[in-house]
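Troubleshooting log. The previous structure file for this entry was overwritten by mistake, so regenerating from the original sequence record. Sequence copied from the archived sheet and checked twice against the printout by T.R.
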Amino acid sequence: MNTVLIVDDDESFLLSLIDGFKSYEDQFGIVTAHNGEEAVAILNEQEIHLVLTDLKMPKMDGFALVAHLSANHPDLPVIVMTAFGTPDMEANLKEIGAFQYIEKPIDFNLLVTKILKGLEGRSKGFITGVSLGSFLQLLELDKKTCTLTVRSGKNQGTMYFKNGELMDADTNDLHGIDAAFEIINWKNVEIILANSCDVTEQKISESLGYILLEGSRRQDERESLTVNPGPQNSTSASLDSIDLAGIDLGLDDFLHDEDAIPSPSPAETMPLHSAPSMHASNPLLQQFITMLGSMPEVSNSILVSKDGNVIHTATPSDDQLVNFITYLSVVSEQLQMAMGAGDRQYVLLGLNTGNKFLVLCGKEVVVGLEIGNTIAPGPVAAGLRPVLSRISLQQ
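Regenerated output below.
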């Protein structure tokens, strides 16, 4: 029998959930805790198959509990209950993607669906565990003040947050933003959280989104010098990527074949966005474009809205390329839905020139990138997603 651990300091809320879950007692049992300390004790005593936790609790809060889970139970599905209260924060939390979340007041039917999906495991698209990058974004969203000690093997670093802003970071031999770039790329980390921050002077002025993006880009650059990515695991049900790099699709010829896909008629085509004014009024979009321009592994890039409008191009492009990128974004999303995969896919195509063409989909923006054949696409995609997924074209 599967067991679900519910962690919340509201006794009446716990009792209401227990009563509601009686109809599902043949599918999972319930264990409750009033704070993180009680939850850790339970985890040490018995097997738990999923954790549902609130964030605001006494003694050991939900953040500290999630940090503990990331280090000691990395494969345990986690559902975070939130009461952030603003659409922007809720939308951003959805994009973190490393754990499930549900808003308070709780929609009971939705909660049951998430629990059952989590207990079914990764084969149904439920992502288990909590990555360091996701945890940092959660701190930012909740405007958390804390000090994180991050350990990975022999490495240890410290990150200081005040009201959700990264103030400073240290490792054994690095400080400030250089230390942050190093820490965020550590694997198999242990996170220890203290609910205080002694740093008063902000040594890091860059946003957390920029640090996650640039840090991943630097890591990708290092790995590309030594790593030759092997074939994708065809048995992975999470569909991390749709990898067509080994297939010659004739993309180079297609992009120059005016008859390949007819261009939309004027009546079907919306006016192109004015890139300069749009960039000036959209900081996230400007940050993303600036990062693309600074990446040496990207030889060409184009940003397109999901309705087929050009937002930005590194070099002049034609309607055929715009249509093709838009088409790929639609196809990849349809495959994602059909296979029940998560929302973190990319499309990778092999070009006749020997380069690769990488297509990433955000909520409202699609980006196409030409990268070298030796570049590992996974880290590039992972590095770009934190900003891409948050770009909105709504003014």
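The chain has 13 helices and 15 strands. Archived copy saved in two places this time.
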